Amino acid sequence: MSAVPSKIVCVGRSYAAHAQELGNAIPDQPVLFIKPPSSLVSLAEGIDWNRALGQCHHECELSLRIDRPLKNVTDPKEALAAVGAVTLGLDLTLRDQQDLLKKKGQPWERAKAFDGSCILADWISLDQVPALDQVQFKLEINDQLRQHGDTGLLIFKLGALLAEISQNFSLIPGDVVMTGTPAGVGPLESGDQLKMTLTGLKQDFVWTTQVH
Question: For residue 110, which of 52, 23, 63, 27 has the smallest C-alpha distance?
Fold first, then answer.
């Protein structure tokens, strides 16, 4: 991984099918939340969490590294020009905790921002990406396909999404944007072997990690 980002901005419910599988309404504007730098771990460290807090769900997402400052941008093309690299990431979610917090009308940080809740693969330079709106990815667990994402199906196109984020949070070089997960999220179990594959680039990239 490169230098630790100042923040990781995450997007919720960015694929319609994922919103529907969790019983959520399709949003009319991006649902945004932040993971702190302390949430970030390497693929080699693997996946672990306090089992007393309930189930941990996998959420595989295309992630973007910001290489130029973005603040109060309105032009999607200008926003996209700030992206320097892409990778796949896991936005891990303590689902039982999140459901409880939702019922109480409380923030999600306990479920989304815990230590180890963000796993990022190696960064791939943008010159390897022919078109950001034609990137596909998949997550397999124990050789079974669990998630398949296609940036062409995002509710909010990436340029518009980044511009919207910049209206709320100044993005600085090194910051990460996790663009949201497709349908197919589910619980992780000890011993699970995860494989993430990024396609739609000049070549495919594959990364693996495991649940402790």
Answer: 52
d(CA 212, CA 208): 13
State both tokens at 27.
């949003």
The domain locations on the chain are 8-210
- Superfamily of 8-210 according to CATH: Fumarylacetoacetase-like, C-terminal domain (3.90.850.10)
Q: Could you tell me which residues are beta bridge partners of residue 112?
A: none
Has this prediction a pTM greater than 0.70?
yes
pLDDT (tens digit per residue) in 109-167:
999 999 999 999 999 999 999 999 999 999 999 999 999 999 999 999 999 999 999 99
- In angstroms, the CA 61 to CA 63 distance is 6
Per-residue DSSP letter, 24: P
